[in-house]
């Protein structure tokens, strides 16, 4: 499986990378860990005359943990898992990253690649919508911020312009009640269904809740209705039922080799219940 | 689309070769450098037979462009044995029958070699999770896990004896 030929560039600064991207337009693509792009190129489903490898740009690997958490786009899943500060400040990130692919892929795969390429099977986009994260995009005219909840337009279609590079992801410290629950057929598989849930409790009731689902539509699904269904409840059976019904109204799964639509809806319900129960226990 | 002058350090040796950027690391290792320990299994980043160590990370060399590896330090199964003989991981795979057909073994051992450097005292569950990117079509996982755990224990005993 030999991919189509391309010219390889390894710029050492973001400016140099943006210049290359500007010069080559949609004939160029940035390369992060390559573990989505290279398989697509090997299958000849993607072809680019120029690949701009971001590995030498050190600025894209910074992790800053404060009230806001900011993660450079080239941070690998393995680096996310190894970072003690992140594990303490954003444990939902570790819980999700552990369920992505396998060890070899996590050494190469980056958070930036995971959120930017727009694959509905990827786990981080849904999680980022749950966290209400902000993506920072750098382009020829400077940087701009886009909410993760506004970023995804369709499968592989995002708000990123061809001449922009996603450079960082930021989100506030999350509520103590968290869970990332994923159903997959085997290690390394994409989700049949996955749910990211954050819950903040006060006086034995849900004060705030955020719910997002993965691989159940052509984009990640932030379900405002599912979160709202939990507000003011003690996550009892009726609240769980209401959250699942609201979520099922927001997803739009397609039949594929992971199962027919009815099965995916069923799995989505089971997974969301488990995620809410676990998040509530921790809240 | 011209060829690149590729410089790598493979198993401690500086090597140079010409390769197109699109060539995959596994092809450069096997076909240009005659390093045939890493195998091509699925060629779709699932099976782990092509696992090599690149700059301290276990990678599937079928999913790394040669160009990405420019300047990298690579260790393959050929670089894991000592001048005195087999590495303790190799010894333990033999002793515990951690291989049947042997096709996945170079990738298994190269992965386990990195895993035990990161976690010298893993539980069985940690070994299973840490080795989950490597498939064995003979499904001999029980003995592979036993071999890795035995190697960890041997390496820890040797370390204690040295101290």
Tell me about this structure:
The complex is a heterodimer of chains A (283) and B (163). Chain A has three domains: 7-52, Uridine Diphospho-n-acetylenolpyruvylglucosamine Reductase, domain 2 (2-Layer Sandwich), CATH 3.30.43.10; 62-172, Uridine Diphospho-n-acetylenolpyruvylglucosamine Reductase, domain 3; 177-282, CO dehydrogenase flavoprotein, C-terminal domain (Enolase-like, domain 1), CATH 3.30.390.50. Chain A is built from twelve helices and 14 strands. Chain A has helices at 14-24, 37-42, 77-82, 84-89, 91-97, 103-108, 111-116, 124-130, 148-151, 224-230, 237-250, 261-282, and strands at residues 7-9, 28-31, 50-53, 63-65, 68-72, 134-139, 142-147, 152-154, 157-158, 165-172, 177-183, 193-202, 205-214, 221-222. In chain A, the strands form four sheets. In chain A, strands 4-5-10-6-7 form a five-stranded antiparallel sheet. In chain A, strands 11-12-13-14 form a four-stranded antiparallel sheet. Chain B is an alpha+beta fold and 163 residues long. Chain B has two domains: 4-76, Roll (Ubiquitin-like (UB roll)); 88-162, [2Fe-2S]-binding domain (DNA polymerase, domain 1), CATH 1.10.150. Chain B has five helices and five strands. Chain B is globular. The N and C termini of chain B lie far apart (54 Å). The relative contact order of chain B is 0.15. Chains A and B meet through α2 and α6 of A and β4 of B.
Could you list some keywords that capture this structure?
heterodimer, A: 283 residues, alpha+beta, Uridine Diphospho-n-acetylenolpyruvylglucosamine Reductase, domain 2, Uridine Diphospho-n-acetylenolpyruvylglucosamine Reductase, domain 3, Enolase-like, domain 1, 3 domains, 5-stranded antiparallel beta sheet, 4-stranded antiparallel beta sheet, 12 helices, 14 strands, globular, B: 163 residues, Ubiquitin-like (UB roll), DNA polymerase, domain 1, 2 domains, 5-stranded mixed beta sheet, 5 helices, 5 strands, 36% helix, 15% strand
């Amino acid at each position: 499986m030999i991919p189509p030929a391309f010219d390889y560039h390894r710029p050492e600064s973001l400016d140099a990378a943006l210049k290359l991207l500007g010069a080559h337009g949609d004939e160029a693509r940035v390369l992060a860990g390559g573990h989505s792009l290279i398989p697509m190129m090997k299958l000849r489903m993607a072809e680019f005359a120029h690949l701009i490898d971001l590995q030498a740009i050190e600025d894209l690997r910074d992790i800053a943990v404060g009230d806001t958490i900011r993660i450079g786009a080239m941070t690998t899943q393995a680096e996310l898992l190894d970072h003690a500060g992140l594990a303490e400040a954003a444990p939902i990130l570790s819980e999700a990253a552990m369920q992505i692919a396998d060890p070899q892929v996590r050494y190469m795969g980056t958070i930036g690649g995971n959120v930017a390429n727009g694959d509905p099977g990827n786990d981080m986009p849904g999680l980022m919508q749950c966290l209400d994260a902000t993506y920072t995009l750098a382009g020829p005219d400077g940087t701009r911020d886009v909410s993760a909840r506004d970023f995804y337009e369709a499968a592989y279609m995002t708000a990123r312009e061809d001449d922009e590079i996603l450079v960082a992801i930021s989100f506030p410290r999350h509520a103590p009640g968290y869970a990332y629950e994923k159903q997959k057929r085997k290690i390394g598989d994409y989700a049949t269904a996955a749910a990211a849930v954050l819950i903040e409790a006060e006086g034995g009731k849900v004060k705030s809740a955020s719910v997002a689902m993965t691989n159940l539509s052509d984009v990640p699904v932030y379900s405002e209705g599912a979160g709202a269904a939990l507000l003011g409840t003690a996550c009892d059976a009726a609240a769980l039922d209401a959250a699942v019904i609201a979520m099922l109204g927001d997803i739009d799964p397609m039949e594929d080799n992971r199962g027919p639509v009815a099965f995916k809806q069923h799995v989505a319900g089971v997974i969301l219940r488990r995620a809410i129960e676990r998040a509530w226990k921790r809240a | 689309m011209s060829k690149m002058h590729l410089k790598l350090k493979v198993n401690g040796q500086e090597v140079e070769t010409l390769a197109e950027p699109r060539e995959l690391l596994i092809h450069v290792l096997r076909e240009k450098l005659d390093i045939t320990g890493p195998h091509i299994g699925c060629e779709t980043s699932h099976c782990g037979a092509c696992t090599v160590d690149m700059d301290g990370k276990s990678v599937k060399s079928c999913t790394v462009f040669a160009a990405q590896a420019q300047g990298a330090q690579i260790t393959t199964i050929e670089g894991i044995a000592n001048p005195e003989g087999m590495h303790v991981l190799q010894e333990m795979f033999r002793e515990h029958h951690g291989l049947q057909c042997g096709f996945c073994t170079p990738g298994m051992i190269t992965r386990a070699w990195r895993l035990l450097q990161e976690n010298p005292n893993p539980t069985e569950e940690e070994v299973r999770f840490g080795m989950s990117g490597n498939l064995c079509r003979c499904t001999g996982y029980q003995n592979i896990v036993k071999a890795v755990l035995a190697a960890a224990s041997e390496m820890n005993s040797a370390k204690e004896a040295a101290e």
